[in-house]
Amino acid sequence: MATLTALLSGWGRYPVQSCEMERPERYADLRPVADGLIVRGQGRSYGDAALNDNGRVLLTERVNRLLDLNAEQGILRAEAGVTLAEILAVIVPKGWFLPVTPGTKLVSLGGCVAADVHGKNHHRDGSFGDHVLGMEMILADGSHVSCSPSEKPELFWATVGGMGLTGIIGEVTLKLTPVQSGYVMVRNHVADNLEQLFQLLENPATDDRYTVAWLDSLATGPHLGRGIAMCGHHAAKEELPAGREYSPRSERSRSIPFDFPSFMLNPLSIGAFNALYYAREGGKQGPFLSGYAPYFYPLDAIGNWNRLYGKRGFVQYQCVIPGATAFDGIRTLLQKLSGSRRPSFLAVLKRLGAQGKGLLSFPMAGYTLALDLPIRDEGLFGLLDDLDKIVLQHGGRIYLAKDARLSAESFRAMYPRYGEWIGIKNRVDPDNLFGSSLSRRLKIAEEKA
Length: 449
Description:
The chain has helices at about 85-90, 110-115, 120-125, 155-160, 195-200, 265-280, 290-295, 325-340, 380-395, 410-415, 420-430, 435-440, and strands at about 5-10, 15-20, 35-40, 55-60, 65-70, 75-80, 95, 130-140, 145, 170-175, 175-180, 185-190, 210-215, 225-235, 255, 290, 300-305, 315-320, 345-350, 365-375, 395-400. It is α+β, with helices and mostly antiparallel strands. It folds into two domains: about 65-180, 2-Layer Sandwich (Uridine Diphospho-n-acetylenolpyruvylglucosamine Reductase, domain 3), CATH 3.30.465; about 185-410, Alpha-Beta Plaits (2-Layer Sandwich), CATH 3.30.70. The strands form five sheets. It has an eight-stranded antiparallel beta sheet. A five-stranded antiparallel beta sheet has the order 5-6-10-8-9. Helix 8 runs antiparallel to helix 9. The radius of gyration is 21 Å and the shape is globular.
């Protein structure tokens, strides 16, 4: 296979690194190489998880076949390079949906396993790995092995959430969830402050299978944490108006054609957007129908939306704080953020369920806060270090799939099962052939169990 050396970044466009890219055309071409590599699906992890500075990156975008779909039992087997968008186009018309989905469908199946992604239903249905029935992997010695929760479970749970560092994920078998339509029945609830928002997310009367809250990151004082809780479920047949098609038509998307000047995202412009969004979404009275794409993947309708943040890019900061300390922790984070005058264009709060089974899985029972912070100057990274300290003080952790700058020391403090994970990594990849810029930054390659 031919290789191409080029500058590469994650979705946040920071950092930018020189990588040697190799793109296999078929499954048989997937293989480890003696000088090491990291696998990259669609490049939608935000930081450096799918980068390998001055090293090799294996692109799997063409290893994307749907191999088998049992439409009666809802079991899908596919190559890891296939995207969620490609899967949805096939399964939704047949009455099935993804059991868990992140906020974009433009990610690879293998990437969802490697990051053990979570969605708006984590508090009810867990994370992506909980629904993976099995997978085929290609290990550092070139062998093809199958693993599942019952077959080679240690390898399986080290790979789920393992950020691609245990081997190449080749094929994935996934249990789907049945649906009666391609619509979601949604209800919005207004919260005037963070306390009200937590009450909405915890109240069974307002919660639903899929629940997420948008926050106004600039709100302060008595309105700190004000937002909109958006709660929904797959619409049943009887909830659809007469004559409504089973599935909504594809929506037209727009694309950002150029990098926005960095000064355009400032407290004034973001404040105006937040006020408009709060009024618009809060003004929706009663339940309403939404196509599944606008509800689960609103930003996918804007191509290259990361260009809004300018050439310097942005950092998405996502943390989770356990339930007992979540309110105090989230409130302290928001106070620190609002006091910094570094507004987040997007701030999202979700309630998470049980601890993920993957050894490096991000979710734990509590609340996760995600912030998009434009890189205007180096001062941002000092603020993020301060946020890390708050997260650690409250027993939380940072999501590796979104991270671009966490320290190795903080990583080890946040992920208590790292010792178990590195032991398995060392057994299946003793020469550390699978490595990334993220793994080197976190000093994973420098130690043995």
